[in-house]
Design brief:
mainly beta; globular; 5-stranded mixed beta sheet; 4-stranded antiparallel beta sheet
């Protein structure tokens, strides 16, 4: 009994010594409160860069749509036009055109990212294999084995279809472009070469500019130039005129499309867990705050979530306050989803 008590005391001493050194975001002024004002049909059970899956099989996309249910055990991976891709932990994948199944197949490894058109499905497996499938014949049109990743960020970017090209974001920090017409890799690029958490977490194209990022670096690719920006990346917003980089040490960095720095705002010890772009730039902070700043990063207001956050009491006080986000959180273009609740930004 004495031995158990000493071990318990040693454990508590370790916990408290670790927590006493950790700093948390504590704003001096709170502009107001934010209340989750809508209930979801059930609780969020998984989140990726493209959307969130609810316990009842419904899913939320980046556009905020929530009107379709997946088969039991499947989790949402992506949606393009009316084509939805979902997978389960056993290596099964399905592609739906509306509610009609157009592809169902199985792999030895779990599919962690995928996108599809009516004709083809591009996937990345947990083993970092990249493949392209013919949805009608189930024929493998292309396959490339990449270096396995030891650890990955949960925000795994999905492959991107661009006319006759398929852009694959790998789990080891690379991009390669497969030409479906010429049936060969047209271009490949190393975005980052870190050993851990080096997967592509963001991939998007606006006009003639492609922006990709890992947790360590952001790349901007145009027909003429390739530019990069080193940062500890938490999240990214890519708009027509530029890029907002949210870092793990509480900075919001504004750049142009070529990643030339145009501004910065620091929120000491902030940890961003979700971002939205609307009339303002919005960042959800892990301790239960919503940070709103103008697009030029000149002025900001901070709001406090007052319901739906459940890390109170003893553990909450240990880890930085009476409230903190502890369940799955997802942000669409206009709303914040947390647990089984929703908050929609005013237009």
């Amino acid at each position: 009994m004495k031995k158990i008590t000493l071990l318990s005391l040693a454990f508590l001493a370790f916990i408290f010594s670790g927590c006493s050194d950790k700093q948390f975001f504590k704003p001096e002024n709170i502009a107001g409160n934010v209340v989750f004002d809508k209930k979801l049909s059930s609780k969020i059970i998984s989140v990726n860069s493209q959307g969130a899956t609810l316990e009842d099989g419904m899913f939320i996309t980046k556009d905020g749509s929530l009107n379709q249910k997946l088969p039991k055990g499947y989790e949402f991976l992506s949606k393009r036009d009316n084509i939805t891709v979902a997978a389960n932990i056993f290596g099964d994948i399905i592609v739906l055109d509306g509610t009609k199944e157009i592809l169902k197949t199985k792999f030895d490894s779990m599919v962690v990212a995928a996108s599809a058109t009516k004709d083809m499905t591009a996937i990345i497996t947990a083993d970092n294999d990249a493949m392209l499938f013919d949805n009608k014949t189930k024929e493998i049109l292309f396959k490339q084995k990449n270096e396995e990743a030891i650890s990955v960020n949960a925000k795994i970017a999905a492959p991107y279809f661009l006319n006759e090209l398929v852009i694959y974001p790998t789990l080891d920090g690379k991009l390669f472009i497969y030409d479906t017409k010429d049936k060969k890799i047209a271009k490949d690029l190393v975005v980052s070469s870190e050993k851990n958490f080096n997967n592509i977490i963001f991939l998007d194209i606006i006009e003639d500019r492609l922006i990709a990022a890992t947790s360590h670096k952001v790349f901007s690719i145009s027909p003429k130039y390739i530019n990069s920006y080193d940062a500890d990346v938490s999240d990214i917003i890519f708009i027509k005129n530029g890029v907002y980089i949210f870092t793990t040490d509480g900075k919001i960095i504004m750049t142009d499309s070529d990643l030339r720095k145009a501004g910065e705002k620091k929120f000491p010890f902030a940890r961003f867990v979700g971002v939205i772009y609307g009339k303002y730039i919005y960042a959800v902070e892990s301790q239960g705050y919503l940070i709103a700043t103008d697009v030029n990063l000149k002025t900001s207001n901070i709001f406090k979530f007052t319901n739906g956050i459940f890390a109170g009491g003893f553990l909450g006080s240990m880890f930085g306050g009476t409230e903190a986000f502890v369940d799955h959180l997802f942000t669409s273009k206009e709303a914040i989803y947390y647990g089984d609740k929703q908050f929609t930004l005013a237009k």
